[in-house]
Amino acid sequence: MNRIAALVVCTVLSCLSPSLLDAGIEETVSPQSADVAVPLPQIDAAHTTWMLVSSALVLMMTAPGLALFYGGLVRKKNILGVMMQCIFLMGVMSVVWALWGFSLAFGTDVLGGFVGGNDYFLMDGLLMQLYEGEPAAPVWGETGVPAMIFMVFQGMFFIITPALICGAYAERMKFSSMVLFSVLWGTVVYCPLAHWVWSDNGWLFTGKYEAYDFAGGTVVHISSGVSALLCAILLGPRIGFGSEPMPPHNLTYTCIGTALLWVGWFGFNAGSAVGANSAAANAFVATHLAAAAGVVAWAGMEWLTRGKPSVLGACSGAVAGLVCITPACGVVNPLSGILLGLSAGVFCFYACTTLKSKFGYDDSLDAFGVHGMGGALGALLTGVFASSSVGGAGVSGLMDGNVDQFLNQVISVVAATVWALVGSLVLLKVVDAMLGLRVSEDQEIQGLDLSQHGEEGYIFL
Amino acid sequence: MKKLEAIIRHFKLEDVKNGLSEAGIQGMTVSEVRGFGRQKGHKETYRGAEYTVDFLPKVKIEVVVADDLVEKVVEIITNSARTGQIGDGKIFITALADVIRIRTGETGADAI
């Protein structure tokens, strides 16, 4: 029976597909030949397919990726607290992005290019509409990709960036304050920064201070990393930090989360090419090799200095490599990607061990050590290894003797750092005054699962 | 009647269970426990943070037997759980006031 059914389906499909193909060609050709006033948008099927997949991959990075990565690192009384932070941000940040965030980041300049305008408020101009009676989705610029897919792809970045900060205030931040802070932070810190770095005439995207940030080294990782450090300092350490043992409660989760992040990152970086093209291919391979080199470097450092390579070290190394290649993968080749991954593995290893213990801040899950430091290293190394064979004519870095480009990368790191620090400082003070930042001592000891959500992650029975 | 609580190594559980079953012991309760005795703990390192783990994982077996079987059961457990290294565990024996089988209400030796 099954074989007959399969045969029928195949026959029907083979009959249908040529006609579908014809219809497709007709559709793309007709506006030109028919000379209509409003031509149907020219949607490129290959680019659009890749962007649909990429958007889904990037969403997967926040949950289950980051949710499991962070979830495994906390104590078991706080696992739902961390997972809820990730899953709730997937909810609230998506809505914020669709209603006003995207417009602030990618709208036309207002306030002298400080931020985007209200062109796309409430998804205005992004949604399907009638073209001479035909419903179709408008295309984003020259990409051949529906504008709403570009919007939703960028929205996935808007979700994961505040979710990364969760690593710094894990196990002690009040849930309501976390939500308010994230919404404000996304609107006030992320959107302007994304506008500077990625909008068509952002001051860091083009012109005198043009800096290369292909997929979000500054916008996502530096901004979240330094904000995370500030959160860790302002909230103060967890009760018992330094005196009580706080080992990760389930590194198997962290391992699974790492693997999901790694895979999701292909969408994050190769998707940032906004098309199925050479740039996407280069970004994909460079991303993969940087993660791979990161694993070897971090675990290798542990092996050399402590005698044993740890699972958490290998996982951390992968993420450090991925963070570091993020700004670079559009302008450096995969061989440089290996160098970036190795550097990130070693550098972030010291940031998370030596640096943290020297200054004593409780960046609980090393959001600053991995994303802040790894992001800054990546942005700078992008200015070292940038190559015209990947980035196109005029693209070069310190290796080619282009000092100006390296200085522009420095400027972009400083700009993102200062902006995120100032913005986060103000917002944290505002939220503190309105709601308070930390849960009470009793609630912290009880754990966030019960005190914030009235649930437990692990139930006997 | 006596209750024997034996703290043993994880990987010896199967041997102990088989030994007791062969001797006709019809039931036991097993739980995963943590604790320490003379065996030292170990160090764990997570991103540079070192923790000394004092409470080592062990398995606890609880068996209830008639008085005349105690000696035999102790022999079976010690023989099958022994490696000769520190950390093989201990057996605690306590007198038991009564046993009740919930289904039938039987008590004492009949309920074991």
3D architecture notes:
The complex is a heterodimer of chains A (461) and B (112). With 461 residues, chain A is mostly helical. Chain A has one domain (52-128, 147-453): Orthogonal Bundle (Ammonium transporter fold). In chain A, 68% of the residues lie in helices and 2% in strands. Chain A contains 15 helices and 4 strands. Residues 7-36 of chain A have low confidence and may be disordered. Helices cover 20% and strands 36% of the residues of chain B. In chain B, strand 3 (42-46) and strand 4 (49-53) form a beta hairpin. In chain B, the strands form 2 sheets. A 4-stranded antiparallel β-sheet of chain B has the order 2-5-1-6, covered by helices on one side. Chain B has helices at 13-22, 70-81, and strands at residues 2-8, 29-35, 42-46, 49-53, 56-65, 90-95. Classes of the chains: A mainly alpha (461), B alpha+beta (112). Chain A binds chain B through residues 245-248, 306, 308, 310, 312-313, 316, 352-354, 356-357, 366, and chain B through 44-49, 51, 53.
Count of strand segments of chain B: 6
Q: Any low-confidence stretches of chain A, pLDDT <50, length ≥5?
A: 7-36
The most extensive interface between chains reads: A-B, 16 and 8 residues
How many whole angstroms does the radius of gyration of chain B measure? 17 Å
Residue share in helix of chain A: 55-70%
Q: Which class of secondary structure composition applies to the elements of chain A?
A: mainly alpha
Work out the helicity level of chain B: 10-25%
* Gross morphology of chain A: globular
Radius of gyration of chain A: 23 Å
